[in-house]
Amino acid sequence: MPTFTVYRLVPPHNTATLAFHFGRQGIGLEETSETLASDSLFAALVVQAALSTAEVGDDGAPAWVRPFMHGEPPLRHSSLLPAIGELPLLPRPLLPLRLAETATVQAKQLKKLRYLSPALFAAACRGEALPATIIALQQGKVWLTEAEARCLPTPWRPAANESDEAWRKRLKVTPLWQIEATPHVALDRLSAASAYYEVGRVVFAAAVGLHVLVAFHDLAAQPVFERLLTLLGESGLGGKRTYGYGVFAWQRSTLTIDFPTPHRHAVLLSRYLPTPAELALVRDPRSTYQLVSSSGWFLAANGVTYRRQTVMMVSEGSVLAINDGQLPRGHIIDVRPNDTVAHPIYRSGMALAVPAPEVAFES
Fold this sequence. Notes:
Elements: E1 3-10, E2 19-20, H1 38-52, H2 66-69, E3 75-77, E4 81-84, E5 87-88, E6 90-91, E7 115-116, H3 118-126, E8 134-137, E9 142-145, H4 146-150, H5 164-172, E10 177-187, E11 194-204, E12 208-216, H6 221-235, E13 249-256, E14 263-268, H7 279-283, E15 291-299, E16 305-314, E17 319-321, E18 332-334, E19 346-348, E20 353-357
């Protein structure tokens, strides 16, 4: 019965909403996403560890990273995923979803689905038919049960004397987040010529934010992680932090996800880079997964910007076949382009996964 510590990212004091720039396409600034992958979050934590301590190894890496390098991580964490109030959303598992014959959503809407509530996530992983009444939010990207939707904070919960029909219609047009393009102008230092460009940002509605699930294998690592998360919230997460994007505070809670034994599948809540010994997991015909490319740029300690190596990882929501309940582990990798960079640049492929039973679907 895995129990995760949930860290919800909330607006800091005297701020109403969260705003981030999570770049997605090369060096372009217009594109952004509403989530941040686990390997990027880990890299941001490593930077905070390097800036906040003088204890580094011979390779220049902060001491906080050493247990991860040796295959004994004190914690594992998920990607940053949306949360509505105290309700964390989970990635849609790459399993066929069974809809009831009287379902309020149609099968063609599955193409847009990205996040499930904990109740629907558990039902999907058990291979059960989803409830007939499903509440779809954010143009169908988010699915909740009706009971969960009625417990959401304002403005998503039903108003006094509001009919169910009016409430459901209002939910369809009440966004959880919006992706905006903010205009900017750059001036040439010599000619003073102007150049117009836009920067994408994701702005969450009030009471909506992000969360990260953490499984602590060593409780002594929890205060260190929370200190790094606090520093990260003060310095900002993502791009364009000089414009005020990326700052946050955090709140802590717990989430338990339980499935009956025996466990034959593992559903990923983070990105995953298998070790050579774990390649059989992705080669198993019972596994269903997607590969994503992790690439981009980094600022080295010498002040020079480099392009890091591209790494292919298994995405969140992927389902891997396991034996004897042994969950995938993964490893971290140094992605510096060459030896001219004096210190390592780590990306995490350490897996955070939920054990689930083997699902048998009717033909």
